[in-house]
Amino acid sequence: MLWPSRSRRSRPRSLGSERVAGLTRRRLLVSVGGAAGALALGGGGYALGREEGGGTDVVPFYGPRQAGIATPAQDRLVFGAFDVTAGSRDELRVLLQQWTAATALMTNGALTGPVSDQPDAPPADTGEALGLKPANLTVTFGLGPGFFDDRFGLAARRPASLRELAALPGDFLEPARSGGDLCVQACSDDPQIAFHAVRNLTRIGRGSAELRWLQLGFGRTSSTTSAQSTPRNLMGFKDGTNNIKSDDQAAMERSVWLGDDEPQAWLRGGTYLVARRIRMLIETWDRSSLTDQEHTFGRRKTSGAPLNGAHEHDTVDLVARQGDGTLVIPANAHIRLAGPGANDGRRILRRGYSYTDGIDPVTGQLDAGLFFICFQRDPHTQFAELQRRLGSRDALNEYIRHTSSAVFAVPPGANHGGYIGEGLI
Question: Are 148 and 421 a contacting pair, CB within 8 Å?
Fold first, then answer.
């Protein structure tokens, strides 16, 4: 789903007079003082109505790292990219404080404010989450390159790797679906809970951040922990068999988390997020033979096994040949070009989702595919290098188009009483 682009230079509203969804900014910021104060709101009249025993579906918001990265991938996604329209650095700080406070409430199973206390004013929360559990809701925030332009005096604190990706093979990018100064990734096992989170953050941020584009996702397309089975993408193949598992701490430290060697101290403990909307040419794919499909991926469609094996996790043999001397796994098979061995050990943590946005009005074909999200230490030496290899030779290119692209720096988590991005702002 795409929401219309807004002008990133639209005139900000006065901070002193701005009201957020029926709450003044001052009222909402009362909850910023700490988790205890914020969650007390949820314990009062603003709770979502979780039944007893629902504690297992709450993912803690506060902590050294943001949730929604190493968290086991949930089933649903709402991803929003925003243009910052704040008029000052102080207003930007207030925005991040408000978003942090509201998110701490929602991920704990509370609304952002009362729904029915002021009949003559808009409700402080939109209300569609009333009576629903948080269903493992996580909200992850990222900062885009435009966040560090000349408006707020942050240019010197922009990390060197936070820049737009250079043009890549297979790009058919649409500007209205790409970029952004801020991103919000909301994941949950309930689509309404994820939508509620982004919708209310959009309302709270009005005047300081305007929604640029929005993408809904369903059905995770990779396993992110050892306990999760490998899911299937819309082409019917198991996706992400060799993905990093977030419980592999050594791999996470090596490939995902930024450590003490990161020059920008405020980003240490964080990571980088790359988002790519990859449209699948479903009708063309559906006319391809099973053999062609399996040779495209280099795996069996039913079992997920490499063409040289019988089971999904069998070792991939890239040199195996058939009786006539041809490679068992074709030279342009996706598995050959995307595997860690083919990319000098450059690995990424995949966390994408399938999407469908109805019918393309120009072609009359399905607009569906993969909303690809990945996390890594450096988007240029990891994701971009991988995509250059895939974009130039991958047999899958016949069936896909990359239609959007965005890159964000993901700060570490917030402590109780603090807010996301505090080390920067």
Answer: no
Confidence band for 51, pLDDT divided at 50, 70 and 90: very low
Separation between Cα atoms, residue 298 and residue 296, nearest integer Å: 6
Residue 257 lies in a domain: yes
Closest CA to 303 of 223, 224, 230: 230
Residue-wise pLDDT tens digits, 11-40: 333 333 333 333 444 444 444 443 333 333
Provide the 10 A C-beta neighbour count for residue 111.
Answer: 25
Sign for the CA dihedral angle at 402, 408, 413, 419 comes to negative
How many separate domains does the chain show?
1
Amino acid at 394: D
Name the residue range of residue 354's domain.
34-43+65-425
Side chain identity at residue 332, one-letter code: N
Q: Contact 124/21 with Cβ under 8 angstroms? A: yes
Query: Is the residue at 392 inside a domain?
Result: yes
Examine residue 156 and state whether it is found in any structural domain, yes or no: yes
Q: What is the pTM of this model?
A: 0.88
Neighbours of 256 (CB within 10 A): 25
Strand partners, 84: 209
Give yes or no for a contact between 382 and 368, defined as CB atoms under 8 angstroms apart: no
Question: pLDDT for 382-397, tens place per residue?
Answer: 999 999 989 889 999 9
Separation of CA 173 from chain center: 18
Q: Do 37 and 97 form a contact (C-beta atoms < 8 A)?
A: no
The torsion of the CA quartet 231, 233, 238, 243, rounded to 10 degrees, works out to: -70
Q: CB neighbours of 47 closer than 8 A, spacing ≥ 6? A: 109, 110, 111
Q: Which residue has the tokens 């230079």?
A: 9
